């Protein structure tokens, strides 16, 4: 199971992120998480939103370059060792993690971990075989 | 044992009267036109189309009848179409950077090389060089004319020549100190860079430089003063272009008031770049050269695209040859960055070949007397990736391709769509912050 993450091109300059956030606010896009992979001149903004397709449409309209990137998300108890279990599972299956980040879930004392790998199907399969549930878009809304 | 400094390399011709120069030019011009007409079918057709026969060009006064040659002609006739001798008589080529279309390949016979070296030797002597000097040539060698031109001139003069080529600053400074270089030949920006390095390393007292001959790019009077002060030398400008031969087409004397054009080899005219009309002396316009001595690649009325002013006022140095101002601008979109000719179209070609859009802006700047070339490129959905490694790999590939095309490094900056300033819908292509042509 995978979900869609918004990936947005932003210039690395003062005000760029602010304008971006303003556009999302104006269109009432609810962000669950935002992270940035930055380079000298630009950044890739990665957003988990409640309705990623609608958010992408809004951003396109506003002239942004935004794409929907499939990622795997899992919910884990917010406690030490939770991430280790996931990473060990992937490592045992020989899966390399391109990037990962986490954000607190709405349910108390749990967190959502987002993973991007070269093979998402195999990633989801390996996690599920180890008893780690991957989240669907519907799951995420209530998670 | 020191040789008394000569004032001229070839005194008779360098100080000939204006009448004598005109007589030399008229005679050589008629012969050159005849030779080109007979041997270069490309130009013969141009003359035929213009209704001009070789017999119509008997003297300088007839020069204006001849059709112009432009870089487009060089492209069309590439590579051999303007050659006036059998290839077997050629002994050398030199070339500019660029694509096949933009690249100029010039051919030289033994005599052509000799003539070119003489021009450079005149420039060296005008800068006070003698056979006792140590001439440090830090222009690039290879296809670029800078290195071999000054190198040849220095040989001819009998000076000890250090064929350093450009780059490797540590080695440049070591040789400069250990061998006591006295005359430095390189681009002005490299001279400024070397001066800075000498200052940083506290080597000023250990260098023996007295003069520098700096060309291949535009530089301001301010930059000249900077270099002169920091190196404790007198800095001389030199002008040339591969099409006509290379550096030494014109050179500065101690007056530093314009560059004397070697008029016994090249006839200079100033034209209106719009109409092609010849303009009177003292007016600013496009510089046009006619080669009257060259054998292999004798271009007639070649439009340089450099805008400048000519002056025949007598010069205190005693040379009688016409002086040209520093180029005051270009009548095309060519930029000279780090001494290398750069056309926006070359950059556009590379961008498109690498999947990037033709929405870009070239920003040229000069900090601490060193040129920088930055290219802003608008991002497109196709070139965007969520994967930073992919983005960086693409960018790296573009930088490599630009380097291969231009011969110099350009810094690429990916920017947001529609963020580049537009005028009438088109992105503003070039921003040159150097103010070289004030």
Helical segment count of chain B: 11
Biggest sheet layout of chain A: 6 strands, antiparallel
N/C terminus separation of chain B: 46 Å
Secondary-structure element series of chain A: EHEEHEHEEHH
Oligomer: heterodimer
Largest beta sheet: strand ordering of chain B: 4-3-5-6-7-8-9-14-13
Strand content of chain A: 35-45%
User: How many DSSP E strands of chain A?
Assistant: 6
- Name given to the CATH architecture of the largest domain in chain A: 2-Layer Sandwich
The low-pLDDT segments of chain B are none
Helix/strand structural class of chain A: alpha+beta
Radius of gyration of chain B: 23 Å
Describe the protein's architecture and organization:
The complex is a heterodimer of chains A (143) and B (438). Chain A is an alpha+beta fold. Chain A has two domains: 3-69, 2-Layer Sandwich (VC0802-like), CATH 3.30.2130; 71-142, VC0802-like (2-Layer Sandwich), CATH 3.30.2130. Chain A has five helices and six strands. Chain A is globular, with a radius of gyration of 16 Å. The two termini of chain A are 15 Å apart. By secondary structure, chain B is α/β, with parallel strands linked by helices. In chain B, helix 2 (18-39) crosses helix 3, helix 5 packs across helix 6 and helix 8 packs parallel to helix 9 (221-231). The A-B interface holds A 5, 7, 9-11, 16, 37, 39, 41-42, 44, 46, 63-65, 67, 69, 98, 116 and B 379-381, 384, 386-388, 391-392, 413-419.
Short description:
Chain A is built from five helices and six strands, in the order βαββαβαββαα. Chain A has 143 residues and is of the alpha+beta class. Chain A folds into two domains: 3-69, 2-Layer Sandwich (VC0802-like), CATH 3.30.2130; 71-142, VC0802-like.
SSE topology:
The complex is a heterodimer of chains A (143) and B (438).
Chain A: E1 3-11, H1 16-26, E2 31-38, E3 42-49, H2 52-61, E4 66-77, H3 82-92, E5 97-104, E6 110-117, H4 120-129, H5 137-142
Antiparallel strand pairs in A: 1-3, 1-4, 2-3, 4-6, 5-6
Chain B: H1 11-14, H2 18-39, H3 41-50, H4 71-76, E1 90-95, E2 105-109, H5 110-126, E3 134-137, H6 145-157, E4 160-163, H7 169-178, E5 183-186, H8 188-200, E6 211-215, H9 221-231, E7 234-241, E8 246-252, E9 259-261, E10 266-271, E11 285-291, E12 302-308, E13 310-311, E14 323-324, E15 329-330, E16 335-337, E17 340-342, H10 344-353, E18 360-367, E19 370-378, H11 388-406, E20 411-415, E21 422-423, E22 426-427, E23 430-432
Parallel strand pairs in B: 3-4, 3-5, 5-6, 6-7, 18-23, 19-20
Antiparallel strand pairs in B: 1-2, 7-8, 8-9, 9-14, 10-11, 11-12, 12-15, 13-14, 16-17, 18-19, 21-22
Helix pairs in contact in B: 2-3, 5-6, 8-9, 10-11
